[in-house]
Write a structure and sequence with these properties.
- The protein is an alpha+beta fold.
- Helix content is 61%, strand content 9%.
- It has a 4-stranded mixed β-sheet.
């Protein structure tokens, strides 16, 4: 591929389903030359003219992408993109096929702090059902959300392990402040070790490194401290039973832990 594009400085990509105009591709290439450090997207206007299936799919994907990556993209499924040739090595290293690859490109840019710039374009819809689109709602949605699902399942399974161990301890220990804290700390340590290994091996595919482990331990310590403070307040001050109190505590801290791991600890340099 590098031999075929030798001498060019900007690359444009356009879906072959007839939904984009060549004029917009040329405009986007010029736009990209003004934003050399960014991935440039030709974004469609999401409104009543967009077919319902595309509007719903785009809306859900857009919100999930922002939640996971911390980056706002108004059209995550656009097939009209342009970028400087210097970004090519990063994009060639991205895994996946079809819509999965397009989503992974956006996630990679967010993790590597590569800017994403947008330019509004016109899109051609041949009918109200957008039948010319090759998007398969079930298969391609799974591909798009696969990495997001893996991260969520990792966090959820860690929470279930934590909550299960804590509940087991509370069956045999008295519900005093000291014993509740001891059971909570033990369950948290076991689930944290499990979560770190799962995230390294199956979610972020990173090697276990001393720096990453130290950052994770630091995060786990902060979360554990907050966990005990919130849990003790809900049980002793608010008068809740330990079981719903534990559930509420974990839900409050879930987003914090998720965001820090995604954006700081396991980020791609």
């Amino acid at each position: 591929m590098k031999k075929e594009i030798w001498g060019y400085d900007t690359i444009g990509i356009m879906d072959a389903d007839g939904q984009h105009r060549p004029e917009d591709m040329m405009r986007l290439l010029d736009f990209s030359k003004e934003h050399r450090q960014a991935l440039c997207l030709g974004v469609r206007k999401v409104g009543k003219d967009m077919p319902l299936r595309s509007r719903l799919g785009n809306g859900i994907t857009r919100k999930v992408f922002r939640l996971v990556s911390g980056t706002a993209v108004s059209d995550t499924q656009t097939g009209l993109r342009a970028f400087d040739i210097r970004l090519l090595p990063d994009l060639l290293a991205v895994s996946g096929e079809r819509y999965e690859y397009e989503m992974n490109v956006l996630l990679t840019c967010a993790r590597k702090h590569i800017d994403i710039e947008e330019m509004e374009i016109e899109t051609i819809y041949h009918d109200r059902e957008n039948s010319c689109s090759h998007f398969n709602s079930v298969r391609d949605s799974f591909r798009i959300y696969k990495d997001i699902f893996k991260f969520t399942l990792s966090s959820m399974s860690s929470f279930l392990l934590d909550y299960g161990l804590f509940s087991l301890f509370m069956l045999f220990l008295p519900h005093t402040t000291a014993m509740v804290m001891a059971g909570n700390v033990t369950a948290r340590v076991v689930s944290a070790l499990y979560n770190y290994n799962i995230n390294c091996r199956h979610v972020f595919h990173t090697r276990r490194k001393a720096s990453t482990a130290f950052q994770y331990i630091l995060l786990a310590g902060v979360i554990l401290l907050l966990n005990n403070i919130i849990l003790d307040f809900l049980v002793q001050s608010a008068g809740l039973s330990v079981y719903p109190a534990k559930l509420i505590t974990e839900c409050v801290l879930f987003i914090i832990s998720w965001t820090v791991q995604k954006q700081l600890i396991f980020r791609v340099a």
